[in-house]
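Morning, I've got a small favour to ask if you have a moment. It would help a lot if you went through both lines with me. I owe you a coffee for this, so here goes:
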Amino acid sequence: MTTFAITPEATQEHVVTALGDKVKNTSIHWGEVTVEVSAADYFQAAQILKTAPGCNFEQLMDLCGLDYSTYGNDVWEGARYGVTLHLLSISLNQRVRLKVFAADDEFPVLDSVNSIWNSANWYEREAFDLFGIVFEGHDDLRRILTDYGFIGHPFRKDFPLSGQVEMRYDAELKRVVYQPVSIEPREITPRIIREDNYGGLH
């Protein structure tokens, strides 16, 4: 059996041709193709990428949430929340990264692609849990990593490092109780050893 690999430039050309005016921008970095679409075109673009000739991205390898609020430790001018999908075409031996941003920073909503790739199910639940991105059309959108009583979304860049709620066992009540975090926020500076012969090193 002969294994072949399509060049990133050829993959990019096929993707751009298939998506047409749905492409907001596209790039190739480190041999990987990225294509961005708008939230309004996201679901249809995903359908096209799965079935269009020259694309055939049958498999969703990953879907992860994004919070660009302090991208590059600078001021970000675009939408804050989005997702990136990593798609694989087994039949054509090529990959593409599909990126989309939610239109509303206050209540980020995107279409679910779970009906296109069922592997999106838990990935979308994870992005909802950790970033607060709502996936419209997902039939079981609930937290997957944090506890039932968890407040907030811990991968948002403005989420407090110590969290907002802690739990402990109450001996009198004989059950676990939730309460506001009692740990005072503090900055921890790592100890730097400057001894010349530390550990026998010269």
